[in-house]
Amino acid sequence: MEARLTGFAVNSVTGGVDALGAVSVTLDVAGREVSGRGVSTDIVEASARVLLNALNRLVRVREKASNTETP
């Protein structure tokens, strides 16, 4: 699956030593825009979670579209 990153943001959810960071992305995949969000104390982990979240959302949208096209 080929995707183009159109938006990326990192925000602090909590403060302190074990602060949570939230990462948000927007992806463009074949003209369809999907977004995702991931939260973790590790920004790299949150980034991986958000990518998986957005791609899973895309898969669900595609499955729903293919199910509605079939009579």
Summed up:
By secondary structure, the chain is of the alpha+beta class.
Helix content: 25-40%
Query: What class do helices, strands and sheet pairing give?
Result: alpha+beta
- The order of strands across the largest sheet is 1-2-3
Biggest beta-sheet profile: 3 strands, antiparallel
Rg from alpha-carbon coordinates: 15 Å
- Low-confidence segments, given as residue ranges, are none
How many strands in all?
3
Mean pLDDT: 88
**Helix and strand succession?**
EEEH
Features of this protein?
71 residues, alpha+beta, 3-stranded antiparallel β-sheet, 38% strand
What do these coordinates show?
The chain has 71 residues and is α+β, with helices and mostly antiparallel strands. It is 38% helix and 38% strand. It contains 1 helix and 3 strands. It has one helix at residues 43-69; strands at 4-12, 21-29, 32-40. The chain has a 3-stranded antiparallel β-sheet. It is elongated. The mean pLDDT is 88.
Which secondary structure elements does this structure contain, and how are they paired or packed?
Layout: E1 4-12, E2 21-29, E3 32-40, H1 43-69
Antiparallel strand pairs: 1-2, 2-3
